[in-house]
Amino acid sequence: MTFLLMIALLFLGVQLLVLISNLFFFPVLQEPSDTYLKSEESISILIPARNEALNLPETLPRVLAQTVRAEVIVLNDQSEDATAQILADMQQQYAQLRVIDGEPLPNGWTGKNWACQQLAEAAKGDVLIFTDADVRWEKKTLASLLELKKQNQAEFLSVWPRQLTLSTLETIAVPLIDQILLGALPYLAVKYLKPKTLAAGNGQLMLWTKAAYDKLGGHEAFKTDILEDVRMAQAAKAKAIPLVLALGGDLLSTRMYQTDSALIEGFSKNIVAASGGKLALLILTLLNTLAHTLCWLLIPFQPLWLGIGLMSLSLRFLCNLKTTRELPESFWQPFMSFALWHIAWQALRQKNLSWKGRIYP
After folding, report:
1. pLDDT value at position 167?
2. N or C: which end of the chain has fewer CB atoms below 10 A?
3. SS3 74
4. Structural domains of the chain sorted by starting position, each given as residue range(s) with its CATH number in brackets
């Protein structure tokens, strides 16, 4: 019992220390200065879209309404729903919108990487901004991105949007993204230490200078990677490309999954690679179960487990505070393990990854 208590204390203690540091130092997108209305560089906003008929009517007009001028290119990635028709209708309404049809997926590529590579080749901008079709921009989002880039003299910038959740499972599981980021990646280390492992990227929004993107070899250099965003960020750091990370705050948000089944499928696609393998995933799932759920059941046998439970709630509370989520959501934390086991079980037993009708080896 004492050994398990110490393991849980160490597991949560490290995360809390990192999170407290990130409360002060992890950047958040801010309203841009009033004078920042144009960019000295040409901008291309690039959106891969596969079966995005539910999202595009809401999200694409937001991207097209930016206060800074940019070309917007959407690639219809062999969609099987009404995506093509929606894009055709929008192209008639917005002069700056370009729509291109994606080529069939070649062997040896993941779908999104292939789509992004085609978008990059079609772009004319000095700055390339890849963003997902379910990400919601505000009018000043682009200006904020460019100002943050300029302030940090960055050639790579990646943002984690504020996560919008509706269902109970979303509310329990989706904020884990922020909790892992803010509890495991100290921003001061990202900024000042050299190891490439102290970097991350988020494919929901990645901004590159064209020169930096080409220096890495574009998405082609990462064509087989499921976690291409993380690998690209790490490669950028290894090549001393200046980078900056940020949270979306009030300027960038997303609802990642429309249904609970899509949530399970989407998380299970990435979680093994993100954990470092199936054994690592199993160990991390057990640790999370002990630190966030079993701790409450063990209090009658050892009152010190109450302290572990309170540390667990504090972790979620502080994370919600940083990401401007509702603070009462913290009380869902003890149930997080149930969602994690569901996702982990799906990931551990599947032989091939699948996403949006595509099977990956």
Report:
1. 93
2. C
3. strand
4. 2-24+259-360 (no CATH), 43-254 (3.90.550.10)
Cβ within 8 Å of residue 128, ≥6 positions away: 44, 46, 120, 207, 208, 209, 210, 213
- Single-letter amino acid code for the residue at 52: E
According to the model, what pLDDT value does residue 349 have? 83
Q: Are 201 and 230 in contact (CB under 8 A)?
A: yes
Alpha-carbon gap, residue 304 to 237, rounded angstroms: 42
Q: Are strands 353-355 and 162-163 parallel, antiparallel or unpaired?
A: unpaired
CA dist 304 and 298 (Å) reads 9
Residue 113 buriedness (CB in 10 A; 0-12 / 13-18 / 19+): buried
Q: How far is CA 106 from CA 29, 49, 101, 111, in A?
A: 37, 17, 15, 9
**Contact yes or no for 50/356 (Cβ under 8 A):** yes
Phi, psi of 304 (to 5 degrees): -65, -20
Cα separations (Å) of 214 from 153, 210, 221, 232, 241?
Answer: 18, 6, 10, 12, 12
| Predicted structure pTM score | 0.93
Low-confidence ranges of the chain (pLDDT < 70): 1, 34-39, 352-361
Residue 104 tokens read as 């069939």
15 contacts 183 by C-beta, under 8 angstroms: yes
Task: Say how far apart CA 46 and CA 6 lie, in whole Å.
Answer: 47
Query: CA-to-CA distance for 53 and 46, rounded, in angstroms?
Result: 17
For residue 359, the model assigns a pLDDT of 66
Rounded-to-integer distance, Cα 215 and Cα 199, Å: 18
